[in-house]
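Dataset card, provenance and construction

Sequences and ligand SMILES were collected as paired inputs. For each pair, a complete structure of the chain with the small molecule in place was predicted and serialized as structure tokens. The example below shows a pair involving fe (ii) ion. Curators did not alter the output after generation; any descriptive sentences attached to a record were derived from the structure itself.
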Amino acid sequence: MSSYKKFTLGEHLTSEQQLFFNEHGFIHFKNFIKPQTVQNIIDASKQVQQQWLKNVVSKVNGVPIKYGKDLDGSDIVQRFAFINQHHDLFSGLADDPRFETLLQLIGPGARLGTSEKDGMVLNHYVNSSQSAFTKMGWHTDGLRDIFHGSRLNPMLNVGIHLNTLQPEHGGLRVLPGTHRQSLYQMLFRKKYFLDNNADEREVAIIPEAGDLTIHDGRLWHRVAQSTVIGEQSRRRVIYIPIIAGKFEPKHASSPTVFYQKFAGLVK
Ligand SMILES: O=C(O)CCC(=O)C(=O)O
Ligand SMILES: [Fe+2]
């Protein structure tokens, strides 16, 4: 599987979409939001960034905020957590009724994780020597639940892509079907976050700005570094989890959990 079928999200998930997701552990929908909305989102993230730089915000609800430098040397936020709690545009985005349709992918009790895990996250990658965020090694998102000491609850990660990419710009790479693996494989298939090597079976997710993707919390994936540097390598993507199982909201005094120390390994 080197290329894959892309879908359009309608009022209901089709059986073809459901089957694709069940088999491969990911799915890609074209044109979820319009170019103007993408621009508004980027502008809003800059407003939140300005606030957080001014107030030296190091954590939100216990989740560390990742800072780095832009191409011009200015300070930027490279990973926002719970951004939906810091700007109306992001809380409004989470209220989009089309997310209800996506909840069907995990079934009863499913909800958008606006106050759980890391809430709505915005990642901002740019490739330069000064950047603190250019790639992310192989991992599954569900490992966090194991670190939490809780059962592996069903979890999906919904991505809203804000840049139009080509393969040379790096980005999301997934190992299709690995969501249907043993716990052993989920723990040990690759060295969590340390292994950045391409896999011969990986599939490159190549979005246009405004596309939406979903991947299963058990699916192995990584973020490949851009092979070009500078403006062309800029990549912003929003993630918001779909969660089932016990409701575990975070708040201002939530502790920083052990796995979040891994964040320091990522550059
Ligand atoms: O930036 C991406 O596309 C993926 C990021 C990711 O895998 C994560 O934050 O867990
Ligand atoms: Fe991930």
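Derived descriptions for this record:
The first helix runs from residue 15 to 24.
Residues 24 and 177 are 4 Å apart (CA to CA).
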